[in-house]
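TA notes, week 10

Several of you asked for a full example with nothing omitted. So below is the full record: structure tokens for the whole chain, then the designed sequence directly under it. When grading your own attempts, check the secondary structure regions first.
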């Protein structure tokens, strides 16, 4: 009896149940020798290979769209200064672009700017205090809340400029500096790049802004700044870019 039970359970074909024990045994051996190994060899490896190939395709395809941009120079055929002021100059360039197209472009040339995300994380690394400023911006026709920032002097290093601007506008010195991101605010016509630094270990001092600057500044928690962004109360691009990127990195480092 035990032998019969074992044969019935292991049998694969349905008609094996009606056959004699010997037939069951032969059906079992045939199924093992012919049916199962063939299915295993033919179907399973193919499925694994296809899945692997699909995965490799995704991995190969993903980086192509997110590779860092490579600097390429256009061939300048002629360049004319059509305006020059104390902060920037406007050039009219006739050029052949890397893609081969010949165009005329009006470009604002600028020494570049620095942005300072100055934070006090002595009480909370998860939700630090951030230095933000309020000042009137004529181009926008309104007061804006912003991070401290400023234009680089000719030949000035970005870090030195960031340290200078933070002290001038807020009076703060920082013990620790690290770059966060560099970006172009409006590369369609503006050649200004903006380098953002995170400044930590703040030490208070006396501010001495330039004569044309009237700046009010305060420390606000990161969580409160994010709420202001969600409400549309902060419209300044450098502040949106810097705070949102920092918040994302900080959440990954210290948890949400």
């Amino acid at each position: 009896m035990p032998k019969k039970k074992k044969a019935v359970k292991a049998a694969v074909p349905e008609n094996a149940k009606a056959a004699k024990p010997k037939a069951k045994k032969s059906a079992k051996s045939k199924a093992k020798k012919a049916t199962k190994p063939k299915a295993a060899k033919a179907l399973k490896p193919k499925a694994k290979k296809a899945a692997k190939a699909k995965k490799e395709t995704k991995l190969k395809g993903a980086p192509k769209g997110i590779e860092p941009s490579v600097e390429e120079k256009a061939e300048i055929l002629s360049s004319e200064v059509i305006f020059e002021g104390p902060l920037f100059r406007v050039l009219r360039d006739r050029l052949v672009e890397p893609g081969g197209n010949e165009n005329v472009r009006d470009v604002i040339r600028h020494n570049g700017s620095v942005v300072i995300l100055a934070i006090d994380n002595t009480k909370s690394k998860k939700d630090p205090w951030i230095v933000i400023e309020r000042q009137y911006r004529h181009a926008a026709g309104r007061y804006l809340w912003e991070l401290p920032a400023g234009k680089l002097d000719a030949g000035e290093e970005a870090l030195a400029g960031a340290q200078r601007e933070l002290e001038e506008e807020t009076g703060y010195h920082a013990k620790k500096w690290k770059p966060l991101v560099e970006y172009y605010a409006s590369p369609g016509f503006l050649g200004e790049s903006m380098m953002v630094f995170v400044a930590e270990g703040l030490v208070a001092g006396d501010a001495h802004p330039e004569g044309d600057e009237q700046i009010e500044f305060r420390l606000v928690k990161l969580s409160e700044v994010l709420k202001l962004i969600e409400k549309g109360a902060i419209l300044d691009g450098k502040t949106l870019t810097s705070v949102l990127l920092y918040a994302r990195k900080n959440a990954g480092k210290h948890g949400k």
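Residues 1-60 have pLDDT under 50 and may be disordered. Use that as a sanity check on your answer.
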